[in-house]
Amino acid sequence: MRAAALALAAAATAACSDDATTSLLDGPRVVAIVADPPTVAADGVAQLALVTALDGAPAAPDEVSWRACSPAWPVADPVRDCSGDRALALPVAPDGRAVVDVAAVAARFGLALPPAPADGDPCGRAVVPVTIVVEAELGGARLIARKQLDVGAAPPPRTNPAFVQVRVDGAPLAPGAPLPAGATVALSADLAADALDEVCEPDGEAPARHEDVRVAVYAGGGATLSELAFDVIEVEGATITGAVELTLPEAPDDVPLWLVAVDEGGGVAVWHDVVPVR
């Protein structure tokens, strides 16, 4: 079930764009939506940031708008199912971030949150998912993405994962350090241990381990990947980090790399760099 949860979380990130993940670095694309915090209390506020790219390079959209969707209506089509009376326009900060005030969302839709147990909600199960939709204009294209934000009466604190460093063949990848053309290397990453939340097993009543994380990898510039993601998991108290094989182009080039980490609670972290291949 832990593997299934991670697969669903990674699919949710990739589904920010309706295009296949292999075309993420071609043209204007949504890379991720990051909610801070990823789970919000009934009296709380969250900020959502949209991460977009144009031909593999970070690019801010020309225009952006956000809206919360009615939890009473399934959102199969974000345009059709999250509009009019089924939507609430969200305030947008000058940097394009959305501001989600849970009290305002609850008042707009009559949101009823499940009561938290007497000892609180240490496993984060008494929550209601609220779908947030963002529309943006970038590079002449209209981008539409959505993010699920869990809201609870007294949810446990949840944080986004954080990248410490990316590794190539086990060694830290230094900014601007070239990699050999035509080589195949093992690509992995270290995540901050203090940013991994404690979570419960499906049949547990108290946190028993740190959450697992799936890291999606996207490469441009003619580079190819053996897999689209690797996992960071905890087994018997030890953290085990996977890797993917990155095959670099034969000719000298600059390879844009994106890593998107998604944890079990919907937390997201994004890492980007351009690696010179020589």
List unreliable stretches of 5+ residues.
Answer: 1-23
Output the structural class: mainly beta
- How does the major sheet shape up? 5 strands, mixed
How far do the termini sit from each other?
43 Å
Please list the strands of the largest sheet in the order they lie side by side.
2-9-8-5-6
Radius of gyration over C-alpha positions, nearest whole angstrom? 19 Å
Number of helices: 2
Order of helices and strands: HEEEEEEEHEEEEEEEEEEEEEE
Outline of the structure:
By secondary structure, this protein is mainly β.
How would you explain this protein's 3D organization?
By secondary structure, this protein is mainly β. Helices cover 8% and strands 46% of the residues. The chain contains 2 helices and 21 strands. A hairpin with a 2-residue loop joins strand 3 and strand 4 (57-58).
List its traits.
278 residues; mainly beta; five-stranded mixed beta sheet; five-stranded antiparallel beta sheet; 21 strands; 8% helix; 46% strand; flat
Topology of helices and strands:
Layout: H1 2-14, E1 28-36, E2 39-41, E3 45-54, E4 57-58, E5 63-69, E6 87-89, E7 98-101, H2 102-109, E8 127-138, E9 141-152, E10 163-168, E11 171-172, E12 184-191, E13 198-199, E14 209-210, E15 213-219, E16 224-225, E17 229-235, E18 238-241, E19 244-247, E20 253-263, E21 268-277
Parallel strand pairs: 2-9
Antiparallel strand pairs: 1-3, 3-4, 3-7, 5-6, 5-8, 8-9, 10-11, 10-12, 12-19, 13-14, 15-17, 15-20, 16-19, 17-18, 20-21
